[in-house]
Design a protein that fits this description.
The protein has 127 residues and is α/β, with parallel strands linked by helices. It is built from four helices and six strands, in the order βαβαβαβββα. The strands form two sheets. The chain has a four-stranded parallel β-sheet. It has a two-stranded parallel ribbon with strand order 1-6. The two termini are 18 Å apart.
Length: 127
Amino acid sequence: MRILRWHDFEQAVERIAADWQPRPCPGIHGIPRGGLCLAVALSHRLALPLLAAPAPGCLLVDDVYESGRTLEAHRHLPGLEAVVWISKVPPRWWKAVEVSSAAEWILFPWENAAAAAEDERHYRATR
């Protein structure tokens, strides 16, 4: 299990913010759960509103792209820009701060290690 720290999170936020500026957009939406952490930090960093739902032209963020289910549901929105902290596959229509091995399980700073280990067991058992 790869353990990410808050310092790593801050670096990811800075990289996304640097790549995003100075584009106008209606705001930022984070996919629950992990995407919310990125969305709040980016909302403050970029002085953009935090959106309750994805909107055309918004910045959509998530912590990890694994199966694609969470981002793919919003791909149809015009002008949408999607960014993830970690992608476990090479990015195609979304951007990623980092690309990781599909086999690598990630523990994000806001997660509980024991719960994450259980999530990993469940995920691997159902795939």
